[in-house]
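So, can you check this record?

>
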Amino acid sequence: MTDEKITVGGKEFVCSVIPAGPVNIVFAANEGGLVGCGAIDVTALSGFGYAAARIRPPEGAGIGGNRRRSPPGGNH
């Protein structure tokens, strides 16, 4: 797993990449919520009162698309 802190619109997020077999689970989160790939269960997270949204990857790069890509600076 790799983590990297980023700032967007003056707010800090932790971006994570979790290798899971042939794919990566990717998300950015902070205390206010999470934005992640299609493997993220937004319904379950909202049940805990935590805002969550899924984003679509570029064409061909999703879980059903190309093989797992290495995280930035990673060797997976």
About this structure: The longest strand covers residues 11-20. The beta strands are 2-8, 11-20, 23-30, 33-36, 51-54. Helices lie at 42-47. Residues 2-54 form one domain.
